[in-house]
């Protein structure tokens, strides 16, 4: 039923000059495709949505579309396209003035950099995410950023810095034992 409604919306807006609404309809159609495990189809719809959104100045929508494309690439395909899309989303969110999306996407980009062993870039994006999450009091993001920074430091055999990264976070927030930050701290101490 949802597929039919979205298809009708895509069809309707394809016949108008409303590029923003057409892009939104295509993006949602991409979500439907993704949810039905048609990953290639979802990418195709997102890219069509991006083509339409580029005809507007809706930076937030362009950020959402690029985030969705990055999400599909990071979860389904084995390539670096997700980092490029996360970085594009980050730039669009900044243009749109969406601070909450900026810090969340900075976190994703930092994690992308860890996967590709770009340590300095990882720490840069994770620091940015941590700094921007603080005013939102997003403790989950703050703890996760600290854990990911410790992961990057441990991977570079900078164990003392990893310990220094973990301890203040654990003192500042009620962190449940078993969370990743405990693993990072234990790993650094063991080395």
End-to-end Cα distance, whole Å, is 56 Å
**Biggest sheet descriptor:** none
Question: What structural category characterises the helix and strand content?
Answer: mainly alpha
- Helical proportion? over 70%
Q: Give the overall form.
A: elongated
How large, in whole angstroms, is the Cα Rg?
A: 19 Å
Proportion of residues in β-strands: under 5%
Query: Helix count, per DSSP?
Result: 10
Spell out the helices and strands N to C: HHHHHHHHHH
Which regions contain 5 or more consecutive residues with pLDDT less than 50? Answer: none
Overall pLDDT level: 90
Number of strands: 0
What does this structure look like?
This protein is an all-alpha fold. Helices cover 80% and strands 0% of the residues. The chain has helices at residues 2-14, 19-35, 39-53, 59-76, 81-96, 99-115, 119-133, 139-155, 159-172, 180-190. The protein is elongated, with a radius of gyration of 19 Å. 43% of the residues are buried.
Topology, pairings included?
Blueprint: H1 2-14, H2 19-35, H3 39-53, H4 59-76, H5 81-96, H6 99-115, H7 119-133, H8 139-155, H9 159-172, H10 180-190
Helix pairs in contact: 1-2, 2-3, 2-4, 3-4, 4-5, 5-6, 6-7, 6-8, 7-8, 8-9, 8-10, 9-10
């Amino acid at each position: 039923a949802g597929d039919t409604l979205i298809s009708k919306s895509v069809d309707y807006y394809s016949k108008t000059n409303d590029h923003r609404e057409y892009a939104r309809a295509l993006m949602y159609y991409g979500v439907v495709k993704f949810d039905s495990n048609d990953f290639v189809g979802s990418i195709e719809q997102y890219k069509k949505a991006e083509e339409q959104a580029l005809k507007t100045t809706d930076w937030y929508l362009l950020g959402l579309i690029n985030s969705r494309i990055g999400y599909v690439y990071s979860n389904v395909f084995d390539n670096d396209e997700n980092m490029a899309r996360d970085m594009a989303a980050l730039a669009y969110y900044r243009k749109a003035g969406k601070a909450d999306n900026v810090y969340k996407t900075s976190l994703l980009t930092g994690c992308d950099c860890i996967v590709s062993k770009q340590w300095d870039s990882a720490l840069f994006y994770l620091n940015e995410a941590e700094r921007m999450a603080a005013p939102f009091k997003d403790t989950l993001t703050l703890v996760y950023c600290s854990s990911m920074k410790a992961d990057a430091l441990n991977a570079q055999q900078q164990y003392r810095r990893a310990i220094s990264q973990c301890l203040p976070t654990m003192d500042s927030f009620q962190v449940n034992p078993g969370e990743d930050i405990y693993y990072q701290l234990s790993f650094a101490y063991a080395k």
